[in-house]
Amino acid sequence: MQTGRVTVAMDALPELDDVLGRAHVVSVPLVTRFRGVDRREAVLLNGPAGWSEFAPFAEYDDAEASTWLAAALNFGWRESRATRLRESIPVNATLPAVPLAQIVEVLSLFGECRTVKIKVAERGETLADDVARVREARRLLGPAGRIRLDANGAWTVDEAEHAVRTLEQFDLEYVEQPCATVPELAELRRRIHRIDVLVAADESVRKASDPLAVARADAADLLVIKAAPLGGIDRALALVAEAGLPAVVSSALDTSVGLAMGAELAARLPVLDYDCGLGTAALLADDVVAATLRPVTGAVSAGRIAADPDALLRLAADPERTAWWRERLARCHTLLAGAAQTRELSPLRPEAGERASPTGLSTSAGP
User: Is 119 considered catalytic here?
Assistant: First the structure.
């Protein structure tokens, strides 16, 4: 992997007052509890290039959240330089750790999706619970459907191997982030290489100081990428190109505005062999747009989406949460500004002649 001297793009970081003046803090109810929350909070930004979203999860520190802000500013203030290659993005349904009796209801929200991603290894659940949930999903999908699992790094290598061998009977497409670390993923992949179940890396890419480490270690068969945690569309595309692995574009339980950024990323990938995790608007009980970006016959459309003024009023967060998010945005903006001044991070797209590093840095060749 070639490394280079860190440089800063000439695109100016928008002034904080301008960003805050375009910000709308919302709290969106969910159909079912997900990641331990019943509502999804986000900041919607009405940028010069269109609407974007800043929505890092509340537990993320400012350093991690600032990358999400860089992505939001990239999408709201700039157009991607990459060419859109497709208009329709095939997506999967997402099945949280719900009781068996609710599985039909939850999957029906997604319509005719041929692929289901099932959350496993959830706190308070057992492998037997996971087996029952996967079995029921397979029954509903039929033999032609595709099933993928997401453990969010919760298993040890031994637990992951046992789980995969137990669940492989249901014809799994892949298991996403079964273990937390890159060495663990590499070891698991070595152990199960004779099983026709792929290993996908998510957190080992989007939360890593070196998102290419998983590719160098041969620790994954494919990457799960999200536009926001990777700093935006162009940086995510650069990471995939340098990693040389197939990619699945996924979301972070975004509103339709955030999902639109993910769909624009998926529309620009040179190859898109896997259904994307961009159908999660089906898990929202309300949305910030007039027409929610729900899957239609297993796909969503690429293209920017504008927030609806009435929805922004209806879903406006209370004053305390609004102040919390605005203060958080301001702190992250300060981090981006400081990083740009010290030539550590380009908050917006690289200038012509530079390449976007997968780490979110703008680099040019040099010693």
Answer: yes
Q: Are residues 162 and 76 in the same domain?
A: no
Rounded to 5 degrees, φ, ψ at 148 are -125, 150
Domain housing 63: 5-81+310-364
**Is residue 207 annotated as a catalytic residue, yes or no?**
no
CA-nearest of 270, 250, 244 to 90 is 250
Closest CA to 350 of 359, 24, 342: 359
DSSP state of 83: P
> Which of 29-43, 298-312, 351-365 shows the highest mean pLDDT?
298-312
pLDDT tens for 235-293 read 999 999 999 999 999 998 999 999 999 999 999 999 999 999 999 999 999 999 999 99
List the alpha helices (DSSP H) in 297-350. 309-314, 319-341
Contact 117, 95 (CB under 8 A): yes
Residue 39 in this model has a pLDDT that exceeds 90: yes
Q: Both 296 and 232 in a single domain? A: yes
d(CA 294, CA 82): 25
Using an 8 Å Cβ cutoff, are 279 and 92 in contact?
yes
The answer to whether residues 202 and 250 touch, using CB atoms and an 8 Å cutoff, is: yes
Q: Cα–Cα distance between 342 and 211 in angstroms, integer?
A: 22
Q: Which among 307, 330, 352 is the end of a domain?
A: 307
Task: Report the alpha-carbon distance of residue 300 to residue 298 in Å, rounded.
Answer: 7
- Of 119, 148, 328, 333, the catalytic one is 119
**Both 268 and 253 in a single domain?**
yes
Q: Are 261 and 75 in contact (CB under 8 A)?
A: yes
This prediction has a pTM of 0.89
Max Cα-Cα span within the chain = 60
**Domain ends where: 307, 322, 339?**
307
Catalytic site residue from 226, 235, 328, 349: 226
CA angle (334, 340, 344) in 5-degree steps? 110
